[in-house]
Write a structure and sequence with these properties.
This protein has helices at about 25-40, 45-50, 70-75, 90-95, 105-115, 125-130, 150-165, 185-205; strands spanning about 15-20, 50-55, 100, 120-125. By secondary structure, it is an alpha/beta fold. α1 crosses α8 (about 185-205).
Amino acid sequence: MSPYLSVGPRPLDHFRILFVCTGNICRSPIAERLTRRELDTRLSPRVAGRILVESAGTWGHEGAPMEEHAATVLDEYGADSGGFTGRELLDEHVVEADLVLTATLDHRAQVISMGHEAGLRTFTLKEFTRLVRTIDPGTLPDPRRGADVTERARALVRAAAALRGWLLAASPESDEVHDPYGAPIGMFRNCGEEIFHAVDPVVTALTGIPAPR
């Protein structure tokens, strides 16, 4: 793929989220499938289908299945772990994404270094969570009052990007999700819990609908 691949206007009737980690068999698949589950739980099928969720890896295991422990964790959350195959991150994935959420700061830097005007729409997952928690929902378009869910999602990304230079993390490590690859199932459960607690407020902010209790 050419490094000079142009960034055209992304379709406004859909909003595409891309999760990125290293191998695309542990962290980013967990984040992808948990996000998909949360969207499908809160939105009608027609509306939920307009938010696309994907993942890829900077050293992605192209065509590989999800790591077994990662699939187990997803099953425990009631999320679909089936039919997954790993992908290596390509320019076209970044070009097409409206929001890129990475596991670590290094992944974020790698995505931004690919160009495609990705800087203002690329965050670590936990960084984005930290920022959206501070955004007043009342300042965002409200789908319950006729606004489009994709319009709200784009407004949220713009608002988070505007806050990034003002609201700093307590430490760089606090904005990262570390790799559980090769660890026992307990470490994967910890990773899954960490990702779930980061994804939940993101989906609430994107949709304007909190998780059912």
